[in-house]
Amino acid sequence: MEQAVTAAQAVMDLEKAYLLQNYARYPLVLKRGKGCWLYDLSGRRYLDLISGIGVNSLGHAHPRIVRVMKEQMSLLIHSSNLYYHEYQGPLAKKLCETSGLQRAFFCNSGTEAVEGAIKMAHAHGRKTSPDKHEILSLENSFHGRSVGALSITGQPKYRSDFEPLMPGVKFVPMGDQTAFEAAVTDRTAAIFVETIQGEGGVYPMPAEWLRKARALADRHNALLVFDEIQCGIGRPGTHFAYQLHQPAILPDVVTMAKPIACGLPLGAIVCNERAAASIAPGMHGTTFGGGALACRVALEFYDILEELLPQMRRVSAYLFDGLKALKDKYSIVKEVRGFGLMIGVEIEFQCRHFVKQGMADGLLFNVTHDNVVRMLPPYIITEKEVDRALKGLGKIFRSGRPAEG
Q1: In the structure, what pLDDT confidence band is assigned to residue 405 with cuts at 50, 70 and 90?
Q2: pLDDT attached to residue 365
């Protein structure tokens, strides 16, 4: 144990000496993972309820994913988009069929997908009028950390250090239909909406709001863009969160990334023909996006997802029932929100210290928006692991104390 502690400290010290200090990391050095569990250098295990912020969708070392990765790595990892390979086309077909849209573009991350969607919006608007360049977004939203993505992120704490940002962006509060209608004009090129706000505290977007967004986009010839980078591809218990509402509210563009390649970098823009027509050859591209390894893994993920969805819906209902029971028991819990395996538990005070309490008890989750315990567990989580999570969370909620100082 002492040797492991020394090794962990050496890892942390080396990072502090040479890495840009832009992450407030927790003092935990991870060694390996198996299923829903992670292990540190000493061999202690932790129930992973955050899955790499929604990335490790099938947990760790899933046997089918490991087999496909090993096989493909011995054949072809990357070839660039100068040439074809066997897996982009089938994956694009799968994304289009499950989304209800017609065209796909592959990139490396959610932020890149948002950047591509912004370019698509501007190009769409420019075809109509030089003045049609405005983008409407929501307060409390989060779309990424590049300059373009930050420009449409409705949280000043992420934006203020980098202003001035991209002009022509309007923000409206969620739920204010009057402000929404007034903000969308013929100058609007696109409306960007997270169907479930993640970083902003796990707030599902009401169906009537999404339907209003669709109607306003149609009225003013704007693209409706749904950001499903955190909430999409299975996590809500459906392929996409906009499919939770029936009839489904179809966007013009949907951005996605986190879970699709089970830990490998892969993002995508999927759109209808109207939006796709705004991007001609040479207008957009990527070096790494859509490589053979990532696309083949994503295809395997999709096959496994189809088998998992019924289990995910069952386990999700079990988890929400358990969390609502904790809410009834502990007054510090204000609300339990989310869909599927995207959960936010709002606490009546700032609760970032809960993360360290969880780690001490072998649970990994995070806190977003200062007072929301966020959980994005792997899709393979079972009722037995949910019981372990609920027991640990109950212990934390029972302590019921704000952080000192």
Answers
A1: low
A2: 98
Question: What's the CA angle centered on 141, arms 137 and 147, to 5 degrees?
Answer: 75
What is the per-residue pLDDT across 167-203, written as a single tens digit (0 to 9) for each? 999 999 998 999 999 999 999 999 999 999 999 999 9
pLDDT reported for residue 17: 96
Q: Which two tokens stand for residue 277?
A: 């027509």
Which H or E run includes 73? Answer: helix 63-73
Report how far Cα 213 is from the mean position of its chain's Cα atoms.
21
Is residue 22 helix, strand or coil?
coil
d(Cα 359, Cα 156) in Å, to the nearest integer?
Answer: 30
Query: What is the 8-class DSSP label of residue 174?
Result: T
What is the end-to-end Cα distance of the chain in Å, rounded? 32
DSSP 182-245: HH--TTEEEEEEESEESTTT-EEPPHHHHHHHHHHHHHTT-EEEEE-TTT-TTTTSSSSGGGGS
Strands 45-48 and 363-364: parallel
Q: Determine contact, residues 260/379, Cβ cutoff 8 Å.
A: no
DSSP 380: T
- In the chain, the amino acid numbered 220 is H
CATH topology of domain 2-61+308-399: Aspartate Aminotransferase, domain 1 (3.90.1150)
Alpha helices in 333-382 (DSSP H): 353-360
The topology under which CATH files domain 88-290 is Aspartate Aminotransferase; domain 2 (3.40.640)
Closest CA to 197 of 256, 138, 130: 138
Q: Where do you find CATH 3.90.1150.10 in the chain?
A: 2-61+308-399
Angle at 100 between CA 65 and CA 260, to 5 degrees: 20
